TrEMBL record:
Superkingdom, natural source: Eukaryota
Protein's name in the database: Kazal-like domain-containing protein
Entry's Gene Ontology BP terms: cell differentiation; regulation of BMP signaling pathway
Spans traversing the lipid bilayer: none
Ranges of Polar residues composition bias in the record: 105-134
Domain Kazal-like: 23-70
Length: 149
């Protein structure tokens, strides 16, 4: 936030004559961690690349770590295959948390569903309805109030 507003991508909040305003970073750290931009230029570090993109109003992105002349810097032991990626179909992923949450039924959805039936076609009662029916039978079927076993 800068003076109550959010700065645009790559901009920072600067104090200019005591007033806060959004603008491009004026300085970057001097550390040397070269990165190659997708414009083919090598920058001292990611901050310098972002600053150049901000000042130029362009969308320069990091292509890879290291100088553009040296090519991509890879960590020891990690190599990339020169073979093209196969076009085999990927396995279907299990639904994630958002999908499961979206597919849940709300209480109003459950009430609007048709009654369940058993394979024989007989109506299947919920536990609550079954308990209510049993309680009604106890009240009507036992005239002297004794427990039915």
């Amino acid at each position: 936030m800068c003076a109550g507003t959010c700065c645009k991508r790559l901009q920072v909040c600067l104090a200019v004559d005591g007033v806060q305003a959004c603008g491009c970073r004026q300085k970057c750290p001097a550390r040397q961690r070269p990165v190659c931009g997708n414009d083919g230029l090598t920058y001292n570090n990611q901050c310098e690349l972002n600053r150049a993109a901000c000042l130029g109003g362009s969308r320069i992105r990091r292509k890879f770590k290291g100088t553009c002349e040296d090519g991509p810097v890879r960590k020891a032991g990690k190599t990339r295959s020169k073979r093209p990626k196969s076009k085999r179909p990927r396995p279907v992923k299990r639904p994630g948390r958002k999908t499961r949450r979206r597919n849940r039924l709300s209480p109003s959805d459950v009430q609007s569903l048709p009654a369940k039936t058993s394979p024989s076609g007989a109506h299947v009662q919920s536990n609550q309805a079954r308990q209510n029916t049993a309680a009604d039978d106890d009240d009507e079927g036992n005239e002297n109030g004794a427990a039915i076993e």
